From TrEMBL:
Family: Belongs to the dus family.
Site residues, Interacts with tRNA: N95, K181, R184, R297, R300
TM regions (residue ranges): none
EC numbers for this chain: 1.3.1.91
Xref: CDD domains: DUS_like_FMN
GO molecular function: flavin adenine dinucleotide binding; FMN binding; tRNA binding; tRNA-dihydrouridine20 synthase activity
Cofactor(s) annotated in UniProt: FMN
Function in brief: Catalyzes the synthesis of 5,6-dihydrouridine (D), a modified base found in the D-loop of most tRNAs, via the reduction of the C5-C6 double bond in target uridines. Specifically modifies U20 and U20a in tRNAs.
Organism annotation: Leptospira brenneri
Domain DUS-like FMN-binding: 12-321
Protein name per UniProt: tRNA-dihydrouridine(20/20a) synthase
Pfam families linked: Dus (PF01207)
PANTHER family: FMN-LINKED OXIDOREDUCTASES SUPERFAMILY PROTEIN (PTHR42907:SF1)
NCBIfam families per record: PRK11815.1, yjbN
Length: 323
């Protein structure tokens, strides 16, 4: 009997302020198999925060889902990994790639690439606390530590610590002088470094991330690597995912249409509004649904003109479908 396709074959990158539970539910309507990630949650927010449940809660429909943790204390990360496992997450992911000033000031994120021994300890402690996979998302380097040899050394350390899977953003992070947005575009992509890693660590599952926007690119990367993570394109053009299950997971189910996705979203909106929140918290995530199609601008305008008004609810989507 053939082994199941790994969940990490296609994934959506964790993105602060974007990959919240509403966006994840929306993507799940398009693909049942894509691996989803939370926004990064810091160990402090979980261990010392007053609203831990709000940070960690998710719906059953979101599986498979990974909890991304940010922190620099192996012990604190281990505690949070265990809490995440108890919540029902399918994977624990450690953030060693975010270049924001806020993250650097806490001595975690991409700057941890300068401390491979510490990251290895983080992996080891988390592995000792949970039975689910422990993974690391990192860059190919940081300024001052940007050679392939530096990358090889870093990966060899975390592999020895037992990391189950790595996700590599194929750019270095420049820790001074560039904003997080600039760090996603200005440092050049070095896909060949990630391909070389796979040759040097053939038994380690490796996913590539950075600048990937089309299925043609995805298919090319999958000839050399185990997985592809899509970031901004998932937000700008979410309908990209309606073919994922058939193309990469062997599903025979019919791909959903945009209108079917909107129809399935209506009861979700209704259920959310019964508890808390505003409809724009959900609808802001779907503005790119008609990306590249005739009528895309009209769709965005239809939603944005209505979703911030007092009393706005799921009828916005119902009215759009009746047009």
């Amino acid at each position: 009997m053939p082994s199941p396709v790994p969940s990490y074959r296609i994934s959506v990158a964790p993105m602060m302020d974007w990959t919240d539970r509403h966006f994840r539910f929306f993507i799940r309507l398009l693909s049942k198999n894509t691996l989803l990630y939370t926004e990064m949650v810091t160990t402090g927010a979980i261990l010392r925060g007053k609203d831990t449940h709000r940070y960690l809660d998710f719906s059953e429909e979101e599986h498979p889902i990974s909890l991304q943790l940010g922190g620099d204390s192996p012990q604190a990360l281990g505690e949070c990994a265990k809490i995440g496992e108890d919540y029902g997450y399918d994977e624990i992911n450690l953030n060693v790639g975010c270049p924001s000033d806020r993250v650097q000031s806490g001595s975690f994120g991409a700057c941890l690439m300068k401390e491979p021994d510490l990251v290895a300890e983080m992996v080891s402690v988390c592995k000792s606390k949970v039975k689910i996979p422990v993974t690391v998302k990192h860059r190919i380097g940081v300024n001052g530590k940007e050679s392939y040899e530096d990358l090889y050394h870093f990966v060899s350390k975390i592999k020895s610590a037992g990391v189950d899977h790595i996700i590599v953003h194929a750019r270095i992070a420049i820790l001074e002088g560039l904003s997080p947005k600039e760090n996603r575009t200005i440092p050049p992509l070095r896909y060949e470094d990630v391909y070389r890693l796979k040759k040097d660590f053939p038994g380690l599952p490796i996913t590539i991330n950075g600048g990937i926007k089309t299925h043609l690119e995805v298919k090319d990367h999958l000839t050399k690597l185990d997985g592809v993570m899509i970031g901004r394109a998932a937000y700008d053009n979410p309908f990209l995912f309606h073919e994922v299950d058939g193309l990469y997971y062997g599903s025979k189910e019919k791909s959903p249409s945009r209108e079917e996705v909107l129809g399935e979203l209506i009861p979700y909106i209704r259920s959310v509004l019964k508890k808390e929140g505003k409809v724009h918290h959900i609808l802001r995530h779907i503005l790119g649904l008609y990306y590249g199609e005739n009528g895309a601008r009209e769709f965005r305008r239809f939603l944005t003109d209505r979703m911030h008004k007092n009393g706005a609810d799921e009828s916005i989507v119902e009215d759009y479908l009746k047009r």
